[in-house]
């Protein structure tokens, strides 16, 4: 199985996890999340990441998404993954978003792990656009 692990500052990762359950189907066992909450020590957060990874078996792979490249949640999760000797079966991406994570969840099983970032990142960039409403002069047109 390919697991998607979401990590973040605050409640972003669990919130994104919830949104993915709405869009990709609830109760999915292939989506995991851990958050570094305000005031939480790095040892507690690392232990939480470790608990998330207990589901990962010897033939499984991990797609790790962090909210910030170089941020504590992503670097700590990477360290936990390394301690569990899972780095060779993991790809990591910083700057996660809903379009990025949703594409990963829906497309991961049809692609090789190493090819996912190259496909997902450009696709996610394309989703970042200004939203404009144009139209008539009345509120009824909106």
Note the run of SSEs as H and E.
EHEHEHEHH
Give the overall form: globular
Mean pLDDT, to the nearest integer, reads 92
Classify the helix fraction into a percent range.
Answer: 40-55%
Strand order of the largest sheet: 2-1-3-4
CATH architecture annotation: 3-Layer(aba) Sandwich
**Into how many domains do the coordinates divide?**
1
Number of helices: 5
Low-confidence stretches: none
Question: Hey, roughly how much beta strand do the residues contain?
Answer: 15-25%
CATH level-1 class = Alpha Beta
Gyration radius, rounded: 17 Å
CATH superfamily: Phosphotransferase system, mannose-type IIA component
How many extended strands?
4
Q: Describe the biggest sheet?
A: 4 strands, parallel
Question: For the terminal residues, how far apart are their CA atoms?
Answer: 44 Å
Helix/sheet category: alpha/beta
Using the coordinates shown, work out and report the CATH topology.
Rossmann fold
What does this structure look like?
By secondary structure, the protein is an alpha/beta fold. The chain has a single domain, classed as Phosphotransferase system, mannose-type IIA component (Rossmann fold, 3-Layer(aba) Sandwich), CATH 3.40.50.510. The protein is built from five helices and four strands. It has a four-stranded parallel β-sheet with strand order 2-1-3-4, with helices on both faces. Helix 1 crosses helix 4, helix 2 packs across helix 3 and helix 4 crosses helix 5.
